[in-house]
Please model this.
Amino acid sequence: MASAFAHSLVAVTVGKVFPSKTQKFKFFALGIFCATVPDLDVFMHNLGYDYSHVLGHRGFFHSLLFSFLLATAITLIFYRNTKIISKLGLTLLAYFFICAASHGFLDAMTTGGKGIAFFAPFDNTRHFLPWRVIRVSPMSISRFFSEWGLRVLKSEAFWIGIPCVVVLIGNWVVRRFVKKV
Model:
């Protein structure tokens, strides 16, 4: 898996591209939540679910369906006064969905694990993306604060951090100069 830092950075970067009126603390905090919550499935092992089970790690909670259900629930619960079928409602739904779905896509680019069940619960086949360049993060906090964790952070800085900075700079240029033309 990619680290929680990388998932959070992607959520903030994606959020900065959305309309500025949505960009409030709650918006970003919920986006970060959506981007990181799929890894709570690591606790499913403690409940007796094997890694390869649909409820195991990188199973249903990393799927596109879960991303949609989570995004819908977050929008309905935290933006109660916004109709979900409105411009703002669909914008929020899209942002939270992208944040949650980005989790599986980042994990599908890591060097470890058994793949992501993007289509669970309908198909539990695990998939990776063609390029697996992000070092897999350790699953325990104690192992993260080691040489392994440092290598992960370096990998994420290159493969996730640099693209995020490029997107943020591009977004800033567009907002600053293109609207004035």
